[in-house]
Amino acid sequence: MSLTVGVVGCGNISRFHFSGLEKAGARVKWVCDLSEKTAEPWAKKFGARWTADFRPIVEDPEVRLVDVTAILPAHKPVCLAAIRAGKAVICEKTLAETADDALEIVKLAEEKKTIFYTSYMKRFIPAVEQAKALLPSLGRIVTTHIRAHQCWGDLWEAAPTEGFAHTPPGGMSGLRKSYGGGILVCGGSHILDLIVFLLGRPRTVSAAMHVPEGRDYDLLAAALMETPNGVVHFEALSHPLNRIGFLRDGWDERIEITGTRGRLELFSALWDKPEWKACLLVHTDNATGQAVEYRYAPESPFDRALAFFCANIEKGVQGAQSRFTGYDVDELIATIMKSSSTGQTQAVHWRTGA
Ligand SMILES: NC(=O)c1ccc[n+]([C@@H]2O[C@H](COP(=O)([O-])OP(=O)(O)OC[C@H]3O[C@@H](n4cnc5c(N)ncnc54)[C@H](O)[C@@H]3O)[C@@H](O)[C@H]2O)c1
Asked: Is 313 within the bounds of a domain?
C-alpha cells in the first residue's frame, strides 16, 4: 500500500518535496495552499484534491503523512493539528517562529510517538554523509570553520524600496513574513543543523549580528561555539559577490573540520540546482600525507531526504533522525540572537533530550 500524503504549501520549495514524494512512490491525495492558482498545477499532476484549509487533510483517515512546505507562521498550527490527528509529519525548516514553539511541537510529537522530521535536507548530501563517516579518522577534533556565504544581491549599501527584502515603515518584509528573518534563519539554520549533526549540541555561544537600520532581518551572523568536539567558528553572510565560491557562482558554503590526525574540507553546491551542481569533499590524512578528493554525481538531497523519511514512515519507525532536529536549530538561533543583543557569551539551555 502506498503512503498517502497531504502537502500543505505549494510555493517555491514544494517542487522539491513533490519530486521526492513522487520518487519515493507516495500518493499525493491532497494539496493545500491559500492560493488555488498556486496549487493547481500540482493538483493536476497528481490528480489530487485542492483545499485552502489544511483541516480536511488532517481529518482524512487515509492520509498517513502531512508534508508542511508552507511559510513559517503556518508550521506550528499545521504540525500540532497533524500530530494530534496521529499523522506522521515532515516540516520544512526552520521549524517554528520561536524556540518555545519548536519545543512545544517536538514535545507533542515525542509524547504521541509521532514520526516527525524537520526537513534539513543538507544532512542527506552524499558529501556530508561521507564527512560524517570519516570523522573518527580525524583523531581529536579541535576546531571547525563553517560558513554559509550566499549571494543575495547588494542589500548592504542601500535599503531596497520594493520586493521581498523591503521593510516598509511599521510593517514587515517578505523575508520576515515568510521565513522569519534574514541570513541566519535562511542560510545559517542549515549549517547550525550540520554543526549538531557532525559535532553535537553546542554548549556555549558568543555571537555578533548585523541588522541594518530600519530593516527587520539580518545580513550577517557570526558566532564562536564550544561543542563536545572542539570549537566552532560559524558565519552566515548575505553578500553581493556573484563570482565567489568553489563553482564561482556566488555560493560559498564550506565546512573545514580539523583534528589531530587530519582535516576534512567540504564545499557545498548551490542548493536549488541539485540536478547539475555537486559538492566536493577533501580529506587530508596526516599519517599518509595524502589528500583524497571525493566527487559526486549531482543529486537532489531533497529526493534522498524524502526517500529516507517515507521509507521510515511506511515501516512505522522514526529511524536515525531525531524528532528534536528542528528544535535544536531554533534553540541555537535564539541563543545566537540573545548573545548578539546582550554582547555576552550564552550557555545554550537545552530543554529536551538530544
Ligand atoms: N530547505 C531549504 O533550503 C529551503 C529553501 C527555501 C525555503 N525553505 C522553507 O520552505 C518554506 C516555504 O518557503 P517557500 O520559499 O516555498 O515560500 P513561498 O512563499 O514560495 O511558498 C509558501 C506557500 O505557502 C502558502 N501558504 C501560506 N500560508 C498557508 C497556510 N496557512 N496554509 C496553506 N498554505 C499556505 C502560500 O500561499 C505559498 O504558496 C519556509 O519554511 C522556508 O523557510 C526551505
From this structure: no
Q: Is the pLDDT of residue 53 over 80?
A: yes
Query: Looking at the structure, do residues 50 and 178 belong to the same domain, yes or no?
Result: no
Out of 120, 147, 171, a domain closes at: 120
Contact between 82 and 64 (Cβ < 8 Å)? no
CATH of the domain at 46: 3.40.50.720
| Ligand 1 contact via 13 beta carbon (within 6 Å) | yes
Q: Are residues 27 and 113 in the same domain?
A: yes
Q: Is residue 311 situated within a structural domain?
A: no
Q: Quote the cell numbers at residue 329.
A: 536549530
The number of distinct structural domains making up the chain is 2
Please tell me the distance between residue 90's alpha carbon and the centre of ligand 1 in angstroms. Answer: 13
The half-sphere exposure of 317 on its side-chain side, counting CA atoms within 13 A, is 7
Does 49 fall in a domain? yes
Pair 294, 178: CB distance under 8 Å: no
In ligand 1, which atom is closest to the CA atom of 73?
Answer: 28
Query: Please, what is the Cα angle at 235 between 232 and 241, to 5 degrees?
Result: 145
- Ligand 1 pocket member 340 (CB < 6 A): no
For 121-175, what is each residue's pLDDT tens digit?
Answer: 999 999 999 999 999 999 999 999 999 999 999 999 999 999 999 999 999 999 9
Does 354 score more than 80 pLDDT? Answer: no
With 60 as the cut, is the pLDDT of residue 1 above it?
no
Asked if residue 112 has pLDDT above 60, the reply is yes
Q: What is the CATH number of the domain that holds 198?
A: 3.30.360.10
* Among 120, 137, 163, residue at a domain's last position: 120
The residue behind cell 527584502 is 165
pLDDT for the residue 271: 80
Name the residue of 54, 80, 92, 189 to mutate for ligand 1: max ligand atoms within 8 A of Cβ: 92
**Averaged over 254-263, what is the pLDDT?**
98
Nearest-angstrom CA–CA distance, 97 and 75: 9
